[in-house]
Every structure is written in structure tokens, then in C-alpha cells.
């Protein structure tokens, strides 16, 4: 691993706190913390066979789930997160909140 130096010189009227802040910004800029955290735990590369078996198992599980959804035995959960263009406009948000408040009042 290469040695990275992050030196900071205290200027005349600068206090210790701002010097520390300057140092931490400089260290952050070098990307040293990111690399150290990435290498914190050793992760062994999985073998090709294990990766293939895991992928096949995942495909099979998804296939089985789709079949259960088709048969009506499982209710598919709505997708979470993501950007929804329709709900981002203010008029749509007001309409959806008004309709949801009326449906809960019933």
C-alpha cells in the first residue's frame, strides 16, 4: 500500500479546531478513509460454481413466486422506493391525499 501524507500547517491566527477541520478535509480528499474502510474485512472471492448455484437458486425462487402470484396464493407487494413522476407533481399529491383521506373515513 502506498504511503499517503496529509500535512497541514497552522497559519498565524488560526485556532486548533479549524486546523483539525482542515486536516480532516485533506484526509477525506485523499480517499484514504474510504480505502481503509473498504479493506477493513477480508472478503474471499466466491468460486464460479458457488456463484452459478446461487444464481440458479434465485431464478428458481423467483419463478416459484411468480407462479404463486398467478395462482392467487400470494399477494404481490407493491414496489418500494424509486422515483415516481406522477406523485411528484403538487396537484397529483393533493388529489391522492384527498382521495386517501376520504377512503379512510368510510
Model description:
The structure is a single chain. By secondary structure, the protein is an all-alpha fold. Among the domains are: 1-43, no CATH class; 46-75. It has 5 helices and no strands. It is elongated and about 75 Å long. The N and C termini lie far apart (66 Å).
Name a few traits of the molecule.
5 helices, single chain, mainly alpha, 106 residues
Put the structure in a nutshell.
Helices cover 62% and strands 0% of the residues.
Topology, pairings included?
Layout: H1 16-30, H2 32-38, H3 48-71, H4 85-88, H5 90-105
Largest sheet: none
What fraction, in percent, of the residue positions are helical? Answer: 55-70%
Portion in beta strands: under 5%
Give the overall pLDDT as a whole number.
82
Classify the secondary structure makeup into a structural class.
mainly alpha
Overall geometric form: elongated
Uncertain parts: none
Distance between the termini: 66 Å
What are the secondary-structure elements, in order, as H or E? HHHHH
Query: How many strands in all?
Result: 0
Amino acid at each position: 500500500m502506498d504511503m499517503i501524507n496529509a500535512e497541514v500547517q497552522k497559519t498565524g491566527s488560526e485556532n486548533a479546531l479549524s486546523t483539525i477541520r482542515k486536516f480532516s478535509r485533506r484526509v477525506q480528499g485523499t480517499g484514504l478513509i474510504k480505502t481503509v474502510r473498504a479493506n477493513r474485512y477480508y472478503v474471499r472471492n466466491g468460486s464460479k460454481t458457488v456463484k452459478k448455484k446461487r444464481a440458479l437458486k434465485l431464478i428458481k425462487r423467483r419463478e416459484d413466486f411468480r407462479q404463486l402470484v398467478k395462482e392467487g396464493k400470494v399477494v404481490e407487494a407493491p414496489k418500494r422506493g424509486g422515483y415516481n413522476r406522477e406523485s411528484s407533481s403538487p396537484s397529483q399529491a393533493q388529489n391522492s391525499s384527498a382521495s386517501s383521506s376520504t377512503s379512510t373515513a368510510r
